Amino acid sequence: MKPRELTATECIALLSTSRYGRLGLSCKGQPHVIPMSYAYSNEKVYLHSRGKGEKLKIAKYNPKVCFEVDLLEKNHWSSVIAYGMVSISTEIEAKYKMFDAFVLKSMEGHGCRQFKREELGNLNMIVWELRIKSMTGREGIW
């Protein structure tokens, strides 16, 4: 089977069910790809990280990013790349949105620790909200 384009519905289904993906950033012509856990909700990809690091510097410099997820099963593969702009926040409302999206995917913990909504204000956390402008997807057999 030759690779085929996924429909928008199929792209959303893959984004909605996967737990991990790769954030693609670019700074001064240098690409950067970082694996991250995420949640997809309301046409947005939610990620979180510590309040420092190279990816944060790059995203502030250039908020145009992409996010890739894939699924490999036996000899079948599918992949989606979402393109858009990322906003970064430490505000409690952003943390609540991110937390709610992660809870819907049963991913309310990290590092074997479960978090509670009321703890979010005390966490040194950056919320990444990727507003998707476009996406593409393909699947095939090798």
Short summary of the structure?
This protein has 142 residues and is α+β, with helices and mostly antiparallel strands. The protein is built from three helices and ten strands; from the N terminus they run E-H-E-E-E-E-H-E-E-H-E-E-E.
How would you sum up this structure, described in words?
The chain is of the alpha+beta class and 142 residues long. It has one domain (4-135): Pnp Oxidase, Chain A (Roll), CATH 2.30.110.10. Helices cover 22% and strands 50% of the residues. The chain has three helices and ten strands. The protein has helices spanning 8-17, 54-61, 92-104; strands at residues 4-5, 20-27, 30-37, 39-41, 44-49, 64-73, 76-89, 109-110, 113-114, 126-141. Strands 1, 2, 3, 4, 5, 6, 7 and 10 form an eight-stranded antiparallel sheet that branches. It has a two-stranded antiparallel ribbon with strand order 8-9. A hairpin with a 2-residue loop joins strand 6 and strand 7 (76-89). The longest helix is centred in the last third of the chain and has 13 residues, at 92-104. It is globular, with a radius of gyration of 16 Å.
